[in-house]
Amino acid sequence: MSFQAESRAQVSTLPQLQPRCFDDLAVAASIIRPGPIQAGSKHPYLRRRAGLEPVTYPHPLAEPALSKTLGVPLWQEQAMALAIDCAGFTPGEADRLRKAMAAKNSPERVAQLRGRLLTGMAGKGIDRVASERIVGMIEAFSDYGFPQSHAQSMAGIIYASAWVKHHYPHAMLAGIMAHLPMGFYDSQTLIQDAKQHGIEVRSVDIQRSGVHATLEPHADQPTRRPAIRRGLTSVTGISELIAERILTARGPSAFRSVADVARRTRLPAKLMEQLATAGAFDGLGMDRRTALWSAGTYTGEIQDVLPGLGDLALAPELPAMTAAETTAADLDASGASATAHPAQHLRPLLSSRGALPARAARDLADQTRVQVGGLAKYIQRPPTAKGVAFGALEDETGMINLVFSPPVWDRTREVVLGAPAVVLEGHIERDRGSVNMIVHRAHALAGHARAHQPGRFR
Predict the structure, then answer these.
(1) Which of 1, 108, 363, 400 is the most buried (most CB within 10 A)?
(2) Residue 337: which residues within 8 A CB-CB, separation 6 or more?
(3) pTM attached to this predicted model
(4) What are phi and psi of 314, to 5 degrees?
(5) How far is CA 361 from CA 24, 157, 353, in A?
(6) Is 361 strand, coil or helix?
């Protein structure tokens, strides 16, 4: 995950692009944008870079502007250069074209210059077919094309964030988790990514958690990468102000019990219950269900009471939560679980239905028929995709990219967007290092899993 190169479309494209230098990162920042996609730049560029098709130009006069990007336009500056080299625009006219491309009503303003462009190209001896191709390239940038300077700046951030992610993934992930919502991925995906990098993620703890996610060293393994401790604000309803209040009440003296937390923080019962549900009191020697029962009986609610009358009532003998119930409680209270991925509890059921884990599906050969099961997330249907929808299937082993053709999306969208967990049927498509699952059918696993997925349709 790296800034501006973390979406599923970028993740799918990067193996095909295989960046080798800084300029390649500028291309990566630019190529998954409406302008280049509308101009038909993405697939020709990737094929040409892989040596699968020759580099061509609509006219020899277009080569200076397009040679750096293998004959396809990616940046606004190239549109300006095409206007100057092919249509005889003056620098002033090219700047007006740039302003038109950047305007709010850019398609209309660029269209007003179409006649001037075609007339200029005719004067340069460019035939009508080539002229139309060049004008089409320029017009495509009226739908959000990047300036090269912007792409270079993005490339710098991509490189820096990728370097930090490679060398200090624990710090990178903790930093992202401390500033959610941001970026493309939710807490559960970030937790899974940490685990795949060998980084332990620890649940929120009333004794140890800070306001936001922090790093904790391993006392018995000082050379191991620090663990990530989820912050108090990861619990729904706990604001920064409330979290600071808890830290102030905790001070240098650890909390002794749930009752001690209630007395010292004077939190309302609802927030005490949220903390208990999230497992924040697990370290106080009380199992989660008992802590939740005790927190729910708190009636002090900010008011002073006589000594001994404000204590929490003793809980009866209660069964401990199962592993699946613990994960469900994590999801309900904080939107993610550091104890287990929700799909992990469904694995026996999924296996009985012939559904493979995401990681195993990614290793299959091209065109192999497959079933996978888990959480359908990050569903997108961009206007430039002509009705095609994209997303990811996430389970305890990772993610696999999903592609839905328009007819399949129309048939499956209700299940994919509405069911807490799904089984998808389809086939694997491999293309120069990129792996996608082309979905054919979707089946709900409603009633078998609970999966809180904030922002799952973006």
Answers:
(1) 400
(2) 188, 191, 203, 326, 327, 330, 331
(3) 0.83
(4) -70, 140
(5) 29, 32, 15
(6) helix
Dist. CA 401–CA 84, nearest whole Å: 41
Instruction: Let me know: does 255 contact 261? Beta carbons within 8 Å.
Output: yes
- The tokens of 92 are what? 């002033």
The DSSP code sequence of 371-397 is EEEEEEEEEE--GGGTT-EEEEEEETT
Query: For helices 258-265 and 240-250, what crossing angle results, to 10°?
Result: 110
Q: What is the pLDDT of residue 320?
A: 83
457 strand-pairing partners: 379
Rounded-to-integer distance, Cα 268 and Cα 190, Å:
30
Is it the case that residue 11 has pLDDT exceeding 60?
yes
Q: How many CA atoms lie within 13 A of 310 on its CB side?
A: 17
- Please give the C-alpha separations between residue 36 and each of 41, 60, 146, 221, in angstroms, as whole numbers: 5, 21, 9, 49
Whether 48 contacts 73, CB under 8 Å: no
Residue listed under structure tokens 């685990």: 195
